[in-house]
Design goal:
By secondary structure, the protein is an alpha+beta fold. It is built from 10 helices and 15 strands. The chain is elongated.
């Protein structure tokens, strides 16, 4: 029987060629840590509140350390668990990761990648050291004609050892990832604020306390019996939270989140595929591109799929998603993230989900168009009031050259006032339709007008 060889280039595809954004390494290692935390909690090894993932950045030494206090790995299983590729013990539908390739991602961004594990009750610490620089050199040689198999490369770059644990550590349990000598071109991996902001929307973390609607989300989850995975993740000692806020800037000024609107997606057998929320605002205009929370984000196991624009294609207009903040949490085990975790594998469930997304985003399109129309109508009313005051001032001060100019100004005002009256009539009709969101938007504009009048 023939033996088939996996060439060294397969390792390049699984490391350097796998991801477009180097910060994905944080997502991959956090995903693995979350799975082990779930396992540790289920085993009674620690309480969920005690579980934590810590990231430490050392810019001077160009070192990244990612560690958790979950199960660790038994010394007898260490080589098999970390040495094999795409041979994970994790199960699809039960674990966040399952392919057994994510741990390799760090090889693309440093000179040395090191894994350490301590299992409770064992007297040793298991260590795996990967020479990432040598790996890249061997792949380069292989591309230049000196062929290596993937297994030959791994044998040359892997080093396993066990070192004695201190007596005080016998009952400790943890796992650590060290990326040593981060490549100069990947220095963004050591940018504290950049990494923190990335994780605030990619990692499975809680909402920050200042987001007043967080309680509404948690109440909804509890009422429905849904599950939302959240973990205590720290970077240089600072806990990371989802950075949602109640205000944001648009091209037409600041807009406010007035409340949330929830949505559920079911298949034809009434099985839940996904659920989500959007922030209801006045939808004055597109949210500024610098706003970190802009877009409706897709999540599986509370870990982001793709980026803030992944669902943009389901909007009728390209700019559609930029009117919203929100999240859609996929819960169906049949929605399987692809290897790059930027979307889902093709299957019947994905097809059904996309069909429902198109219908839902058609509703959202109408929603922000309605908001835009209401904004335009209130602007016409404001403009009419402003122009009327300006005309009165001009008449009092005798600014008109002649009666003809005055009559033209009066005629122009009559047209503006007529448009304003039509706008008022449209707003009145919309208020009588008893559409909850429309009424909420109109009420906000009316409050803003009262506030402005009071300030004057």
């Amino acid at each position: 029987m023939s033996e088939y060889v996996f060439g060294a280039n397969i390792l390049e595809n699984l490391t350097t060629g796998m991801y477009q954004d180097s910060r994905v390494i944080y997502r991959e290692y956090i995903q693995n840590a979350c799975d082990q935390i779930d396992k540790a909690v289920n085993q009674g090894l620690l309480d969920k509140d005690e579980a934590k993932i810590e990231i430490n950045l050392d810019k001077d030494e160009r070192v990244i350390l990612i560690e958790d206090n979950a199960t660790g790995i038994k010394s007898e299983d260490f080589i098999r668990t970390l040495g094999n590729i795409a041979d994970s013990d994790k199960r699809l539908g039960e674990n966040k990761g399952f392919r057994g390739i994510g741990r390799l991602c760090g090889l693309a961004y440093c000179k040395t990648l090191k894994f350490k594990a301590k299992y409770k009750g064992e007297k040793v610490i298991s260590v795996m050291t990967c020479d990432a620089e040598k790996m890249r050199g061997l792949i380069s040689e292989s591309e230049s004609g000196k062929k290596y198999s993937a297994q030959e490369v791994l044998n040359k770059i892997y080093k396993f050892e066990q070192i004695p644990a201190d007596k005080s550590e016998i009952n400790s349990h943890w796992f650590k990832v060290e990326l040593i000598n981060i490549n100069q071109e990947n220095f963004d991996l050591l940018d504290f604020l950049g990494v923190k902001n990335y994780l605030a929307f990619n990692a499975p973390v809680p909402y920050q306390n200042s987001f007043i609607y967080r309680s509404e989300i948690y109440s909804y989850i509890k009422e429905k019996g849904f599950k939302l995975d959240e973990y205590n993740i720290y970077i240089d000692g600072e806990q990371i939270f989802k950075k949602y806020e109640t205000k944001y800037k648009t091209s037409k000024g600041e807009d406010d989140i007035l409340g949330l609107k929830f949505q559920e997606f079911y298949d034809e057998n009434k099985n839940l595929i996904a659920w989500g929320w959007i922030g209801v605002s006045c939808f004055k205009a597109v949210i500024d591109k610098d706003c970190l929370m802009r877009g409706i984000r897709l999540r599986k196991d509370n870990i982001q799929i793709g980026n803030q624009d992944t669902l943009q294609k389901f909007f009728k207009e390209e700019r559609g998603g930029h009117y919203f903040i929100g999240e859609i949490f996929c819960v169906s085990p049949d929605l399987i993230p692809n290897s790059q975790r930027d979307y889902f594998n093709e299957n019947i469930t994905r097809f059904e989900f996309e069909k429902q997304l198109k219908n839902y985003f058609e509703y959202l399109y109408k929603l922000y168009r309605e908001g835009s129309e209401i904004s335009s109508d209130f602007s016409k009313i404001d403009q009419a009031a402003k122009k009327e005051l300006e005309l009165e001032e001009k008449i009092k001060s005798g600014d008109f050259i002649n009666n003809k100019q005055k009559e033209q100004a009066i005629a122009e005002l009559d047209k503006i006032k007529s448009d304003a009256e039509k706008a008022e009539a449209r707003i009145s009709r919309k208020k009588n339709l008893n559409n909850e969101i429309t009424i909420r938007i109109i009420a906000q504009y009316e409050r803003d007008k009262e506030h402005e009048a009071g300030a004057d």
